[in-house]
Request: fold
Amino acid sequence: MPPETTCRFDLFTVSTGAVPQAVWRIATDRWRLRLAAPVFWKLLGTGDGRTFDARDADLRRWALLTVWPAATDAAAFAQQADVVPGWRRIADEHWWATLRPLRATGRWSGATPFPARADAGEATSVGPVAVVTRARLRVRRAGRFWRSVAAVNADLDRADGLLLRIGIGEAPIGLQGTFSLWSSAADMQAFAYRGAPHRDVVRRSSDEHWYAEELFARFAVRDHGGTVFGDDPLA
Reply:
């Protein structure tokens, strides 16, 4: 992908009364996104990311992930296509960020939306970073995954530098992931590589083949705005 590749993440919070409109937009925005033609896109439900099953689902909060050849394309989409503006009309809150891919491994729905690469300045970056994970569970391994979640979440709750984390998914069960924001790459790496529960899950997931497909991507935050949970986590 070109160096200017930009990912945009939008997070919308609607009132309980507007949930039917949100569900309708999840269905009807697909054709609008096909017309807008981003490099890659996903309309996503969200949850608190603690159990990764149907109990997690938060029908008031929805997400949109799009990937564009350049930052100008992402900016034009947010203003001109009737996707983001349409969600704004029904949302009580809207938080967004534009992101520059730093590293990525794996695939999402058979695609590589963030091709693996390293940024020379990543290791020493002091700016905030975003992380997207996504996995498709093997049915026979799902129980092992769910039993491992509690220890990782307890460790994550204590992690230094965590600014925001939500569960994201294309379905209530089996297709799940996370979006998280960290004060720095160093804080994120400390949790990912030095936290015993997380290291154990990474090892077991590889040894026991929990996932039919998985992806991990790390981004530098280019720009952001709006609120979620009443605040801008990067303010």
